[in-house]
Design goal:
The chain is mainly α. Helices cover about 80% and strands about 0% of the residues. The protein has four helices and no strands. The protein has helices spanning about 5-10, 20-45, 45-70, 75. The chain starts with 5 loop residues before the first helix and ends with a helix.
Amino acid sequence: MASDGQDQDRPAEPSPSRRDKRLYLMLMAVCIGLFVLSWAVLDRYSMTAAIIVSVVALVIPPFAVIIANAAGATDRRHP
């Protein structure tokens, strides 16, 4: 397969900063922690509380991606 040079003309996308990676990892750790807390502890006392905590944990991953990517977006916009 012949290369027509288009890949070389396009600049490489910058990798996420260390801060962005740390923020994403922290948010995802909170998400996993909430799931474990809700179904290992809270369900013994209140099923409603376990479900509410699980719903909160389900909302975290999309926001983790948005927040982690937006934190360094201004750095990536200006070359």
